[in-house]
């Protein structure tokens, strides 16, 4: 479609229009993914865009409080927030209106979230989300299910070869606890792990207790899941870290059983950006330069154990090859309505002439009807 | 689904959660309608939820300025609004990024709008909208097309027998102008027409110029389109009013050609609530108590003529009979994944057992697999 460059002042930074054909493509991607969720028993909920900040910032929602647009409700005189994430709202629904529905509770959602500020790398302030939450069980099988269902949803929209990166955000803290690394030493070691600065980690663990001595090896072991699991297996881990490692092994084994073809990497000591996760955390990357297309993992949904995955349709839109455009058939005055209906039933668009000035070209049609009523492609 | 009554303080007044199965039903209704729009050449756009109030309140948007949530943009320090209607945003897109796309321009949209306050009759403050805009032509055929396409979208979701009520918001003002009715007399007559108070209208037109003398007759003529058109035909109308009446006749004739079965009523002197309409205005009612399910008509999209229709999925959700629930098949441990895939491909949900505690009943399944792998319905 003709697309004049937008005036820079037209829309606020990070807010944009989706034009044809992208708006239709994004909606189709979302509905195709939610349909996959539904076929695995995940039932759709639709929380409102605005709610009281008390409930929005409860639990995992606290992490996004300073990214949330806030508004005074003129009716109640209480502060409301425009949701910056959907998971805290699903947690509220699970804990209140669906409190008596038996667990496991499988819920899905799709909609928009808004953020006060974008970042240089991710400038958008309105983001579409589609996701699932599996609330109740504290089981590796549950984590494996949400990752496998997400992978199936991605396959359904043509993202054939994603990589699931698993991190264990509680493992490094457990090792630092056991090694007695605290205060400034802990901050420095955390920063070095964050930056994957192997030399700095190596230097810093020398002064730390024995439990931290496995960190350089585990940092180096990040990569394909089986290799990283073997490194965890061989490492001398204190009990809390061993339990985390064993759980990771169980999640990956359950995933191998459900999604044998899925490429899985494991980064045992990575923990940045997963503040509220209580078990495995997931990041899904698309092939090539698509980047991050989903995020998830285990967390607390109010008082309940939960695991889930959020997919990013805006990133997916960039990663999925465009579908062939829908044929547009020019409907001249007097075309038989039954014929037009039949063409629409076959998935074509029929574009009606409203005045003699309308031509197949001015209506951007790709096809005209010949004397027999058969659509013929127009030359470009 | 188990649905505990919500705590009244949980969500702000007029904001609510859609639970299973309603959230899925609403999304399905919206996508089915937008698909019909697409098959008539209406291409989807997705404007952001938030934009600068300057553009949001331009043109037809001014009517909703005091119903719009306003926010300071921390990035630009300018005021933004949460959209209370989508049509002004589509007008902005048409006038800017799609300014060079040939007219007629057919666009569709679907999304949420927010209002500062609900009314006693319509308490919701977040409303879904799905609609079409036909921008460029000032032709009765264009008005007829948007009404006929809307009716087809309603038929596609099972609203089989809607009534299209056409009003002519400029007719009464044209008659009062011609009759020289001004000031307090005009306000009183407008109020009487608003209330459909035939006796008061009769009394008030006695003191007015001759052009107003047709008002009682036209008030009484509201009803099936053909009768009301005949009354307009017979009435002694000044030229401006005659042009409005002739245009209404042409729109209705074009509609009869496109949608022969559609029930059409015409209320020539009604003009309440259509402040920015420049030609025919539409209200669509569902059968029974469903109430208003769509609104539209002719307006100015910036500097361009336009006509459009907005459908209300929340009202449609109440008017469409619920679909039969999707079968939920219990997947016990060890069920063949290929069998599960085949069931999902048939549209069933497969709900996996994650622990021995999960039973067909606790997972709210409707079917279990027999020894041959065939789903068997569970007794209620």
From TrEMBL, chains A, B:
InterPro entries, per the entry: aa-tRNA-synth_II/BPL/LPL, HisRS-like_core, HisRS/HisZ, HisZ
Q: Name one GO molecular function term.
A: glycosyltransferase activity
Question: Which Pfam family name is an example for this entry?
Answer: tRNA-synt_His
Q: Does this entry carry the keyword Transferase?
A: yes
| Protein role | Required for the first step of histidine biosynthesis. May allow the feedback regulation of ATP phosphoribosyltransferase activity by histidine.
Q: How does it assemble?
A: Heteromultimer composed of HisG and HisZ subunits.
- Give the family this protein belongs to, as stated in its UniProt record: Belongs to the class-II aminoacyl-tRNA synthetase family. HisZ subfamily.
Q: What's the name of the protein? A: ATP phosphoribosyltransferase regulatory subunit
Origin organism is: Falsiroseomonas bella
Q: Taxonomic lineage of this organism?
A: Bacteria, Pseudomonadati, Pseudomonadota, Alphaproteobacteria, Acetobacterales
Which gene underlies this protein? hisZ
